[in-house]
């Protein structure tokens, strides 16, 4: 009777109790316990810290996607990029502006996500991360200094490319450097940080849409912020 072939295990796997395998049998690896996961984290501290730091990048997705639909609530933004209606004597942001910004950003994100896979395989993960950082910084500066809505389109292209690149880089890198026993937990943080980004964007927009804040005390500002943000009461 021929002996079954030895199974090659990853270096980060915990030792598994030997079990007899009959011919044609399928090996099953049981899920690790919480203690095993803690031991894996302690044994691979640097890798886990690097994975945790990289997994925070999805904050960009949550933050920027929330701004796409909520930025029109910011009065200063509407005054800067919008149009003044003489008949109704109000400032408004044309719907076609928002449509162009949204389409451009999502198309840029999809294209960048597809291209980042090839970039990661050819030049490495580090180059991919540096590309994401450069795109994010460039997009941020263009957004800050955009004189009109057309230049803002360039910012949306850059930020969309940064989002797509980040989605391709982060999950690939995290899955490669984390121990197998906590890989699922590390990858699940992706959605967690997206929600944190959405929360931050909501708080920022809510704060800057408050009434005139000049001359108000910190206690009064805090009360105004709490009144407009129910979640603040539980912090």
TrEMBL record:
Protein name per Swiss-Prot or TrEMBL: MFS general substrate transporter
Family: Belongs to the major facilitator superfamily. Sugar transporter (TC 2.A.1.1) family.
Record flagged with keyword tRNA-binding: no
Pfam families: Sugar_tr
InterPro entries: MFS_dom, MFS_sugar_transport-like, MFS_Sugar_Transporters, MFS_trans_sf, Sugar_transporter_CS
Organism: Aspergillus indologenus CBS 114.80
Positions of transmembrane segments: 47-72, 99-120, 127-146, 190-210
Superkingdom classification of source: Eukaryota
Residue stretches making up the Major facilitator superfamily (MFS) profile domain: 50-235
Compartmental location: Membrane
Membrane topology type: Multi-pass membrane protein
SUPFAM superfamilies: MFS general substrate transporter
GO cellular component terms given for this protein: membrane
């Amino acid at each position: 009777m021929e002996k079954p072939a030895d199974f090659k295990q990853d270096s980060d796997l915990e030792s598994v109790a030997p079990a007899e395998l009959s011919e044609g049998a399928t090996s099953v690896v049981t899920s690790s316990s919480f203690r095993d996961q803690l031991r894996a984290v302690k044994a691979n501290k640097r890798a886990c810290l690097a994975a945790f730091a990289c997994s925070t990048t999805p904050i960009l997705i949550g933050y920027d996607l929330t701004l796409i639909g909520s930025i029109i609530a910011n009065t200063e933004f509407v005054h800067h990029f919008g149009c003044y209606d003489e008949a109704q004597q109000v400032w408004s942001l044309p719907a076609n502006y928002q449509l162009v910004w949204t389409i451009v950003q999502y198309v840029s994100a999809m294209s960048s996500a597809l291209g980042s896979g090839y970039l990661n395989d050819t030049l490495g993960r580090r180059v991919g991360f540096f590309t994401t950082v450069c795109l994010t910084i460039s997009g941020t500066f263009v957004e800050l200094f955009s004189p009109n809505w057309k230049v803002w389109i360039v910012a949306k292209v850059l930020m969309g490319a940064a989002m797509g690149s980040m989605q391709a880089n982060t999950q690939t890198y995290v899955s490669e450097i984390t121990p197998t026993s906590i890989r699922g937990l590390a990858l699940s943080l992706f959605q967690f940080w997206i929600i944190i980004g959405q929360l931050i964007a909501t708080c920022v927009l809510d704060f800057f849409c408050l009434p005139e804040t000049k001359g108000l005390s910190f206690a009064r500002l805090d009360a105004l912020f709490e009144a407009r943000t129910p979640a603040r009461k539980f912090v």
